[in-house]
Amino acid sequence: MLKSKKTIAKDLSSIVSDGNVITDESTIKVYAKNASHMEGNAIAVVFPNNTEEVSEIVKYCYKNNIKIYPQASASELTGSSLPREDGVIVSFERMNKIKNINILDSYVVVEPGVRLYDLNLELSIYGFMFPIDPASIKIATVGGAINTGAGGMRGVKYGTMKDWVNELEIVIPNEYGTILKIGCKTSKCRQGYDLVRLIVGSEGTLALVTEATLKITPLPENVITLAAFFDDIEGLVNALLEIKKNKLDILIMEFVDDKSVELTLKVLKINIAGNGHYFVTSIITSPESSERVLSLVENILKRNGAKNVYKAKTLDEAESEGIFDIRRNYDIGLRDLVVKMRKNPASKIIDYNEDISVPPSKLPEAVRRIREIEKRYGLPLTLAGHVGDGNLHPVIKIEEKNIEQIETYEKMKSEILKAVIELGGTVSSEHGIGLDKKKDLIMELKSKNSVKAIDIMKSIKQTFDPKNILNPGKIFEV
Description:
GO molecular function, one term: FAD binding
Enzyme class: oxidoreductase
Strand content: 15-25%
EC number: 1.1.2.4
Pfam families: FAD-oxidase_C (PF02913), FAD_binding_4 (PF01565)
Domain FAD-binding PCMH-type: 38-219
């Protein structure tokens, strides 16, 4: 039988001290929601200050069959950080120390509550950076990025979180609250099975991360940026592929489709003007090659049908000219449209942000099929993404509690994901599975005759977490 809420709070306070456990329902509600429309509930929120306290919390919860939901900023979008009523949120926001910056060996040691933005501010002093940059970078934490396997706009060059984690300190959900160090601080490291890669992207279902050793890289010194509008998506993709063939050092490759551009520019007042599909790329160069590469890429863009080409010789110039603004704000025009369309003026607008990928060569067909689905069902959407690696983010916004719109969205989502799978893509690229994409994951695995993979994952879960107390119900049901 589960202990009373009061007893649990008292017991946890003996581990982390008074003031580090919250049971107030209104405060719990703040922690029991993510950056999307999802909400949960919990018995308490507990704030450990170090690894030893995390271990003691785990031992206590294991002994008393209390579910544990690890969390930091809860900026994820699939429900992977959401608690259920029979558990406690373990918030790592107070474990936010940068423990060591080692420029010579190109790594940094941090606690899970460190925000990616703050980490990069500190690293910039030394001329270095941590390159993973999700849209929520100002609030996203190292722990959350590890749990979701986060990516971002620089993914075309630097990949995702799994490529940047060398070593982890973790706490296993067993009777001892076992503390393990997995991986190495060196870039080359073989310890049998790669447990670090297993933990990265596991959405907090296998272990609690209490410390991470991350690779860091020098800040690029010379970066040029070009942006342009295309009347047809084929021309944009042909330009993208031609730029890649030139073996340039591509930092960013982003895209916003024509309808999203039109909606966005109705609301966004910036220096960039045009119509059609919007393409923006940033390329690392040397001081000597900047002009040559600018000219080369501009010619590639124009040869493939680009119009209104914008150029910047530095990232600061690109920012000041607003070259990235359409991409960063591609859904604000849709919000404005949905607000005007809603039946109840007091209703909230709910965002559904999908996270799909297709091979870059399949982008024209993917965009066409997504827009055909939109036309058939009548719910407007916006479409943009990290086009360099084929990662698209269709966004659909609906009126809260509008049952008809919710049902329509579910049908649209299902058809979009089926189309993506048929094109050789995936239903989740960088946001994770969480609660929202469990059925979608099974659909993708069925298409590959590989549903057995779920059973293998369940076996791994059972090995790490025999009582299923750590973030249960995420990715799959046990």
